[in-house]
Specification:
about 100 residues; alpha+beta; 4 strands; globular
Length: about 100
């Protein structure tokens, strides 16, 4: 499994709604993510900067690169785009992070 981390940007004042929507995450979305090789996916928030920090593990044969074209992923992004910084097509702005330390 490969560890992968990235950051996203929550709009100010949207923490409660962002958390509420994730507490009600669609089962079909979690299935799509799992089928693409993702597991142990967590998102954290720095409330001072509104930066979301996400970590996940993915199989070597993951298909994350196909997620932007999946209809369920597109629907989720449409559902979330009012809460966070996105590209013009609704996809969240994400910035990959480089691992500088890991301890098992």
């Amino acid at each position: 499994m490969e560890r992968y981390a990235f950051k996203m940007f929550l709009n100010q004042g949207m923490m409660a709604e962002y958390k509420r929507r994730h507490n009600e995450i669609w089962p079909e979305l979690t299935s799509v993510l799992t089928e693409s090789g993702i597991q142990n996916y967590s998102i954290y928030l720095d409330p001072d900067s509104h930066v979301l920090f996400a970590t996940l593990e993915r199989r070597a044969d993951h298909t994350m690169m196909d997620l932007p074209s999946h209809p369920i992923m597109r629907r989720w992004w449409d559902h979330m785009k009012d809460l966070m910084r996105t590209h013009s097509d609704g996809e969240p702005v994400t910035i990959p992070l480089n691992e500088v330390f890991h301890m098992d």
